[in-house]
Design goal:
Order of helices and strands of chain B: EEEHEHHEHEHHEEEHEHEHEHH
Largest sheet of chain A: 9 strands, mixed
Radius of gyration of chain A: 15 Å
Shape of chain A: globular
Oligomer: heterodimer
Number of strands of chain B: 12
Number of helices of chain A: 6
Structural class of chain A: alpha/beta
Largest interface: A-B, 54 and 47 residues
Strand content of chain B: 25-35%
Strand order of the largest sheet of chain B: 1-4-5-6-7-10-11-12
Strand order of the largest sheet of chain A: 2-1-3-4-13-12-11-8-9
CATH superfamily of chain A: Class I glutamine amidotransferase (GATase) domain
Helix content of chain A: 10-25%
Largest sheet of chain B: 8 strands, parallel, barrel
Number of helices of chain B: 11
Distance between the termini of chain B: 30 Å
Number of domains of chain A: 1
Radius of gyration of chain B: 17 Å
CATH architecture of chain A: 3-Layer(aba) Sandwich
Order of helices and strands of chain A: EHEHEHHEHEEEEEEEEEH
CATH topology of chain A: Rossmann fold
CATH class of chain A: Alpha Beta
Chain lengths: 200, 266
């Protein structure tokens, strides 16, 4: 406790729901777009909803790209925030968007076959064994998803989910972690994951 | 596996939850925040709040209850009613709602759907459709301003065409309220929902008519909807959400169930 937990003010719309979820757990949080505040935090949240193109433009306008690339403490990207952590995203009308490049990887349109997109609702997640972020969370636990783009399963996948085909439900690369689902809207399971992250 | 969703709907007027029969005779059910909290704990997968007077009254409604709900519940929720512009939607989303649902204003100004999609993303744009089966013409007709009986009017749209139109414009989900069935608890309009499912490739939520557990089983099994919305059966305690989910699981409909978590606390 007594940690500095900072939510990066990306200008996206789910910032208050992430903040409220942490406050329900008794965690004091600061929402900031200032370099020094973000760098001084013990834990950093990178939230996001909307499109990769719009979010990256907002981050660039706030001159936060370098700040986010230089962080050494645990960082958790949420939903679009997770997608922004990889190298590129296909979610744009003008070709690939360059993301933050905090880890290798690419965001692609989901190939759901006959299933509907967006992938919206509660789906089961299978974490890799021994993951600290998913401590106490059994395989096949339901989390709330809403997205049409995803990172395929690859070497930085920390947890898998399947919709039409498998995709990354969570990523980890050094201190950078991300979840495609919304822990702030995933009931007890989401609260557990947020608790685990803050306790890292 | 993606679970089918059970979605209690709370009609809101002046910060109170109300329920009418076929859009009339509203009775007060209770205070909004404790009810929202209660439903989240009871196993609801999502909640919808309809501000039922907003669109028809042409006034700016106090929506501060949205952020009070966002503070207490840990499941997704959608707010409907009186959202006429990108700015209106932005305020609701900033207060912590996950989705906004637009009905009459989208009929008046369909470009609003494109704008909402472009600014906030497809995932939070829900289009509510009030559809009435006209027995004389044999057609499903879209109505607007259904929150106020004196202003309710038929539009030029038949329902399937409007469903196609809103998808093209960037809707992320459709809530189809079958007006003939609303509030009478005789079952969802499975026939209509099947017809709409065939032209709808985004999530489709059934609304209107739930009265007993078998109605939910029927609509999931026969119309392949992604979620089922209901109000009075939950408000009046006629159906317990956990029992409903157990019964649906038994007949093979995928449902989110609670898991025993064993982890640490802060």
């Amino acid at each position: 406790m007594g940690q500095q937990v900072v939510i990066v003010n990306t200008g996206c719309a789910n910032i208050s729901s992430v903040k409220f979820a942490l406050e329900r757990l008794g965690v004091q949080v600061t929402v900031s777009a200032e370099d020094a505040v973000i760098k001084g935090a013990d834990k950093v949240f990178l939230p996001g909803v909307g499109t990769a193109y719009a979010a990256m433009r907002s981050i660039e306008q706030k001159q936060l790209t370098q700040t986010l690339q230089q962080l050494e403490q645990p960082v958790l990207g949420v939903c679009l925030g997770m997608q922004l952590m990889v190298t590129t995203s296909a979610e744009s009308r003008r070709g690939d968007v360059t993301c933050l490049g905090l880890m290798p990887g690419h965001v692609a349109r989901m190939q759901a076959g006959d299933l509907r997109l967006p992938h919206m609702g509660w789906n089961t997640v299978t974490p890799k064994p021994g993951s600290a972020l998913f401590a106490g969370i059994p395989n096949e636990t339901f989390f709330y998803f809403v997205h049409s783009y995803a990172v395929p399963v690859y070497e930085n996948t920390l947890a898998e989910c399947s919709y039409g085909q498998p995709f990354s439900a969570a990523l980890q690369y050094n201190n950078y972690m991300g979840v495609q689902f919304h822990p702030e809207r995933s009931g007890e399971a989401g609260a557990q994951l947020l608790t685990n992250f803050v306790n890292l | 596996m993606l679970a089918k969703r059970i979605i209690p709907c709370l009609d809101v007027r002046d910060g109170k939850v109300v329920k009418g029969v076929q859009f009339r005779n509203h009775e007060i059910i209770g205070d909004i925040v404790p009810l929202a909290e209660q439903y989240a704990k009871a196993g609801a997968d999502e909640l919808v709040f309809y501000d039922i007077t907003a669109s028809s009254d042409q006034r700016v409604v106090d929506k501060s209850w949205v952020s009070r709900i966002a503070q207490v519940i840990d499941i997704p929720f959608c707010v409907a009613g009186g959202i006429k512009s990108v700015e209106d939607a932005g305020r609701i989303l900033e207060m912590g709602a996950d989705k906004i649902s637009v009905n009459s204003p989208a009929l008046t100004n369909p470009d609003l759907i494109n704008e909402l999609h472009d600014v906030y993303g497809q995932q939070c744009v829900v289009i509510g459709i009030d559809s009435f089966f006209n027995a004389q013409s044999g057609k499903y007709e879209v109505y607007k301003f259904t929150g106020d009986e004196s202003r309710t009017q038929q539009t030029q749209w038949n329902t399937a065409d409007w469903v196609k139109e809103v998808q093209q414009r960037g809707a992320g989900e459709i809530v189809l309220n079958c007006m003939n069935q609303d509030g009478v608890r005789k079952g969802y309009d499975v026939e209509q929902l099947q017809a709409i499912r065939a032209v709808c490739n985004i999530p489709l939520i059934a609304s209107g008519g739930a009265g007993e557990i078998s109605h939910f089983a029927d609509v999931f099994a026969q119309a392949d909807v992604d979620g089922a919305l209901a109000a009075s059966v939950f408000h009046k305690g006629l159906i317990n959400i956990m029992e409903l989910k157990e019964a649906l699981t038994e007949v093979g409909i995928p449902m989110r169930r609670h898991h025993g978590l064993t982890g640490t606390q802060l």
